[in-house]
Design a protein that fits this description.
about 210 residues, alpha/beta, two-stranded antiparallel ribbon, about 35% helix
């Protein structure tokens, strides 16, 4: 376990060592579901990662966070979904005080020299990556694994990020060994599950009581 202090809190990172291939899978996970696990497993296998860190964040700055469950609730729920010997669930991002993904990645690259980080995104998120804070810097810091999602294949591959990084696309298995910028489109069985749909279903059931 790697320790460090930031903003008065103790930051605990999951075990890591130089040369380890670690997928970074960040999100609100509100709620976490089998579709998230499917994305993480597909990236683990196709990109040939050693570990995947699920990073339970404070919430997407581009979305309404007023109904967001507490970080502890989401952390516990994510641990139940992500159970796998090569997956770790961590909330260090909240202790770090990072509001944006780029801040988290800057911290990890600086704190963990030699670790081969790969950032994992669903195709839906990659299609909107150009709206993220400092997205070009994210692409310059870590390779990106884009996991296919139903209805998002073409929007992802024709989006602004894909066009900008057109010359940096590689095969998934090559990704951890390539310096950034590099990205791969990871294809395989796709899951239709989404957190938005699950939240809407829950709200409707509550309205009917």
């Amino acid at each position: 376990m790697h320790h460090g202090r930031r903003g008065g809190g103790l930051i605990r990172l999951p075990p890591h060592a130089p040369g380890t291939r670690i997928g970074l899978y960040g999100g609100s996970f509100d709620p976490p579901h089998a579709g998230h696990r499917h994305v993480a497993l597909l990236a683990l296998r196709r990109v040939r990662l050693d570990r995947v860190w699920w990073i339970v964040g404070p919430g997407n700055p581009l979305k309404d966070r007023s109904r967001l469950p507490s970080p502890q609730e989401r952390l516990e729920a994510t641990r139940r979904i992500a159970r796998h010997p090569r997956m770790e669930v961590t909330d260090f991002e909240a202790v770090l005080g990072a509001r944006y993904t780029v801040e988290t990645i800057r911290f990890l690259v600086r704190r963990c020299p030699g670790v081969r980080f790969v950032y994992i995104l669903g195709a839906d998120s990659f299609a909107g990556l150009h709206r993220w804070r400092a997205w070009r810097e994210i692409a310059s810091l870590v390779p990106i694994a884009v996991v296919d999602r139903p209805r998002w294949t073409l929007p992802a591959l024709r989006g602004r990020a894909a066009r900008t990084l057109e010359d940096d696309r590689v095969a998934p298995r090559e990704l951890p060994c390539r310096p950034a910028p590099a990205w791969a489109f990871v294809e395989g069985p796709r899951s239709n599950l989404s957190s938005t749909a699950l939240r809407d279903k829950l709200l409707k059931s509550l309205d009917c009581r």
